[in-house]
Design goal:
Layout: H1 2-7, H2 10-42, H3 56-89, H4 92-106, H5 114-147, H6 155-186, H7 191-218, E1 221-223, H8 228-239, E2 244-250, E3 261-264, E4 270-275, H9 300-307, H10 319-334, H11 337-359, H12 363-368, H13 377-388, H14 390-417, H15 421-434, H16 443-449, H17 455-462
Parallel strand pairs: 2-4
Antiparallel strand pairs: 1-2, 3-4
The chain binds zinc ion.
Residues 328, 332, 408, 411 line the site of zinc ion.
Length: 468
C-alpha cells in the first residue's frame, strides 16, 4: 500500500493529498459539531450557575434552536464536502474551463484570450455555486429561522436580495479579477508585489465605498434621530477622541431579528451603525399601532407581523445598555484591534502572493487537477490559494479565532474601564436572550469555533452585575 503511494507520479500524490486533507478537516469539524450537539441534547436544565441570568423557557428555546441549526449544518456540510469531492474527482474544473473556452470561441476569441475565458469561467462557477447553495439557504431562512421566530423576509424579498447580491458581486469580481490577471501577466519577476499592492488598493476602495454605495443597495440606513441617545453617543465618542461624524440605524429587522452594532470609516470620518433590533424603542417588532401607517411603502415586516403578531417579542437594550455595547465596540478601535486585523490580513496576503509566485511555474500542480496542456493563471490562483494553502488557511483561521476572543475580552475590559460594566453585563444577557444563544459549550468546539468568548466567561470577567 505505502509502496504503491510512493510510486505514484507527483501530480497524483498532490491530488490525493488535497482530497485527504479536505476530508480530514471535514471529519474533524463533524466530530466537534457532534460533541456540541451532545451538549444541546443532554443539557436540558439551566445549569446552577446560570440560574440568575436565564429563565427556563428561554433556555429551552435556545437549546432547540441551536440543535436545529447544528443538525442543518451537519447535512449542508456533508453535502458541500461531497459536492467538492465529486467536482475534483470527475474533473469538473477542467470541464468548466473547456466550456468557457467554447463560449469565448463563439465570440471569435481563441485560447490566447485567456482573460476573457477566465471571466466566463468565473461567472459560470459563481452561478453554479449560487444555484446549488440556494436550496440550503432557502431552507435555513424559511424553515429553521422561521420556525424559531427570527425570519422577517418574504420569499419575494429573499429572491430579489439574492439576485441583487449576485449581480453586485459580478460587477466587482469580474473587473477586479481581469485587472489582477493582467497585472500577473505583465508584472515580470516581481509581479507578486504589484498583485499584492493591487489587492490592497481594491480592499481600501471597497471599504471606502461599501458603506455609502453598496450596503444601501441592500438595507435602509437612517440617521439616528436627535435626542438623548444620540447626544450621549456623541459625548461618549468625544470622551475617547473617537472621530464620530454620523450615527445610523440600519433596518436589520427586515431580514432577521438578530441584533448587532458596528462602526466603520477611515481616519477622521468614522460612523456608527446600530441595528434597529438592538434598540428597545426603535425595533419595528416592538411597534404596535402604527402598522397601518407604514403599509403604503414596501414593508415586508409589517405584513409578516400582522399575520403572526407573536414572533419573538424583542427586548432590545435601553439607552445605557446601548452605550455600554458601543463602549465595547469603540474599545476595539481605541485598543487598535481594527488596525491590527488589517495589518495581519495584509501580511498574510503578501505572504500568499509571494508563495504563489514561487509555485505558479510548477506544471505538476496543474497536472494534478487535470490541466494537461495549459496553465491558466486563474486556475493557478484557485489551485494554490484554495487547495495547496488549505492546511495553512486552517491554522491561520484558528489563530485568528483565538486572537479575536482575546480582543473581545479586552474590549469588554475597556467598557468596564469607562464605568459601564453593569450595563454591559445586562446588555450581554439581553442580547444573548434575543439571539437565542445557548450558554453551554463544549470546550473543544468553542475553542475551535467561537470568535467571541462564551457568555459566562465574559460575564465573569466583567465582575458581576453589581460592580462598577
Ligand atoms: Zn467585540
Amino acid at each position: 500500500m505505502l509502496q504503491a503511494i510512493y510510486e505514484l507520479p507527483v501530480e497524483d500524490k498532490i491530488f490525493y493529498a488535497v482530497l485527504a486533507f479536505s476530508w480530514t478537516v471535514y471529519l474533524w469539524e463533524a466530530y466537534l459539531a457532534f460533541r456540541q450537539r451532545k451538549i444541546y441534547r443532554s443539557t436540558k436544565h439551566v445549569p446552577m450557575e446560570l440560574g440568575k441570568i436565564m429563565d427556563t423557557e428561554t433556555f429551552e428555546k435556545s437549546r432547540l434552536y441551536q440543535l436545529d441549526k447544528s443538525n442543518f449544518s451537519f447535512w449542508s456540510g456533508l453535502y458541500s464536502e461531497t459536492e467538492g469531492t465529486l467536482i475534483l474527482v470527475l474533473g469538473g474544473i477542467p470541464f468548466l474551463w473547456r466550456v468557457s473556452g467554447a463560449i469565448t470561441a463563439r465570440f471569435g476569441l481563441g485560447p490566447e484570450y485567456e482573460i476573457s475565458q477566465s471571466l466566463i469561467f468565473l461567472m459560470l462557477a459563481t452561478l453554479f455555486s449560487a444555484l446549488t447553495g440556494l436550496p440550503w439557504s432557502l431552507y435555513s431562512t424559511f424553515v429553521i429561522e422561521e420556525k424559531h421566530g427570527f425570519n422577517q423576509q418574504t420569499l419575494g424579498f429573499f429572491m430579489k436580495d439574492a439576485l441583487k447580491k449576485f449581480v453586485v458581486t459580478q460587477c466587482i469580481l469580474l473587473p477586479v479579477t481581469s485587472l489582477l490577471l493582467y497585472i500577473i501577466k505583465i508584472g515580470g519577476d516581481y509581479f507578486f508585489i504589484y498583485a499584492w499592492l493591487f489587492t490592497l488598493a481594491v480592499s481600501l476602495v471597497l471599504v471606502t465605498i461599501y458603506a455609502d454605495y453598496i450596503a444601501p443597495l441592500f438595507d435602509k440606513f437612517t440617521p439616528l434621530p436627535e435626542g438623548e441617545l444620540k447626544a450621549e453617543i456623541e459625548s461618549m465618542a468625544k470622551s475617547i477622541n473617537f472621530p464620530l461624524t454620523k450615527v445610523y440605524v440600519v433596518e436589520g429587522s427586515k431580514r432577521s431579528s438578530h441584533s448587532n452594532a458596528y462602526f466603520y470609516g477611515f481616519f477622521k470620518n468614522k460612523r456608527i451603525v446600530l441595528f434597529d433590533t438592538l434598540l428597545e424603542d426603535y425595533s419595528p417588532l416592538n411597534k404596535t399601532g402604527d402598522a397601518e401607517a407604514e403599509q403604503g411603502e414596501e414593508n415586508d415586516v409589517v405584513g409578516e407581523n400582522k399575520a403572526k403578531p407573536k414572533t419573538n417579542k424583542k427586548q432590545g437594550c435601553n439607552n445605557s445598555e446601548v452605550l455600554a455595547v458601543l463602549g465595547h465596540e469603540l474599545g476595539h478601535w481605541k485598543l487598535g484591534h481594527t488596525v491590527k486585523n488589517i495589518v495581519i490580513s495584509q501580511m498574510n496576503s503578501f505572504l500568499c502572493f509571494f508563495l504563489f509566485a514561487v509555485l505558479i511555474g510548477r506544471k505538476e500542480l496543474f497536472l494534478a487537477f487535470g490541466f494537461y496542456d495549459s496553465q491558466p493563471t486563474l486556475i493557478g490562483l484557485m489551485i494554490i490559494f484554495q487547495f495547496i494553502f488549505s492546511p495553512y488557511n486552517e491554522l491561520l483561521s484558528f489563530c485568528l479565532t483565538v486572537l479575536s476572543r482575546r480582543f473581545e475580552f479586552q474590549a469588554d475590559a475597556f467598557a468596564r474601564g469607562m464605568g459601564r460594566a453593569s450595563e454591559l453585563y445586562s446588555a450581554l444577557i439581553k442580547l444573548n436572550k434575543d439571539n437565542l444563544g445557548f450558554p453551554v459549550a463544549d470546550w473543544l468546539f468553542s475553542m475551535w469555533h467561537y470568535s467571541h468568548p462564551p457568555l459566562l466567561e465574559r460575564l465573569r470577567a466583567l465582575g458581576g452585575p453589581k460592580q462598577d
